[in-house]
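User: My advisor, Dr. K., asked me to get a structural model of this assembly before our group meeting. I'm new to this, so sorry if the format is off. These are the inputs:
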Amino acid sequence: MPNSNLRPPTINVTPEEYKQMTEKISPKPTLVKNTIMAFLVGGFICSIGQMIINFYVMYLGLAQASAQIAGTATLILVGALLTGLGVYDEVVKVGGAGAIVPVTGFANSMVSPALEFKREGYVFGVGGKLFTVAGPILVYGIVSSIIVGIVSVLLK
Amino acid sequence: MNSKKSGNQTVTFQNPPVILSRCNVVGPKEGDGPLKGSFDVILHDTYDGEKSWERTEAKILERAMRGALEKVNVPSDSVDYILAGDLLNQIISSNFAARQMGLPFIGLYGACSTMALSIALGSMLIDGGFASKTLCGASSHHDTAERQYRLPTEQGSQRAMYSQWTVTGAGTVLLGDSGQGPRVTAATIGRILDYGETDAGNMGAAMAPAVADTILNHFQDLNRHPDFYDLIVTGDLGSVGLQLVLDILKKSGLNINNFSDCGVMIYSTEQDTHAGGSGCGCSAVVLTGDILNRMTSGELNKVLLIGSGSLHSSLSTQQGESMPAIGHAVCIEK
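Assistant: The format is fine. Below is the predicted structure of the whole assembly, which you can bring to the meeting.
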């Protein structure tokens, strides 16, 4: 917070006024455009996923459930590959949440720290920092699944 | 005593140090920007043959240091002190570059204000009689800064519209007690101001009050008017911070017209950096390139550079602290 005892001259603006000025001048996120792009990119990734699943069912003779798992794994592979090729961050730049929420985004959040911290070694670099981005997702995903599990047991 | 001090925060040099030489090295993105003609070396890629970006940053800083000496055939052992800094933890880029130079070294941390700070201190050393030549510099690298302050570089994310892009670049100036060239005639050391900005993406907003404070004090200390200068240029406020400084100064009774910002100058809007450039390298390469070129050509005669630094860390931001900021001004005259 500002030091109220600054020797003059200093700026003739109070922190409250400054907060308003900052809010007025800082450009707002382009919400409508971002939402539309997220819808299109997210929809595109999911359509590809569906096509892969259909392909596995129709041409490889997999059962529906197995095809869904194989399809997810394929998308993870594609997301990881595109991260390694330096493309996926550009996809997210355009697609936003549409590219972060699908499983390809999860692959990106695992592979990018792995790539990034390789130079600090395999133990403290890759090993220690692999979950820097995905860690919170896993922690709170697992915690909420435990809570849901307990609730469902109690309701039975 | 204190005859070199003017007012509260400003020093005026009795024998103003001369900018004998300067050199800069930038990354490919900067080399694509509107100032591409003003850079000495433009890297083809962000690694430049090194195995890590940290090594690249130290290497380009060393290259800029050696380049400034080679341009005027000054042997490195005639430099009394190197003053340099960068953004990385424990200023490793500067330490590693200075290791290769093998000269007395003063490491500085002023975040993105480092270039102005190093010139101010380097000039004080010379005018104080403690040195006859000082080599002042600063560096930053987009990818080293990203991985230290933000996310892994390949992690997808959407940057805020007011966020800035850390410049890959290093710039140095060689100051001397005699010779030909533009002179550093005064310097105003800034105070830390913190107006409560907590969004580490909005550094322009965090830095604007401190920069405005330094500008007000500079003009009061020297009893000058903004028209004294051909150009008043801030380090890396970006488009948001630039507008905020002008608004703050207006509210504080100072209207400035001849105003610009290195962060706004270094990239074009097509390069999609959002609010512009940032990082120690930003003001370092714009000063040692475009601005001093325009002084040499006679287009500019009097320039005030106010380096702007946001003195937060990723740790302090995560703990919810607001961002202290500082501005240091150096006056360069032909």
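One thing worth pointing out at the meeting: Chain B has a mean pLDDT of 96.

User: Perfect, thanks a lot.
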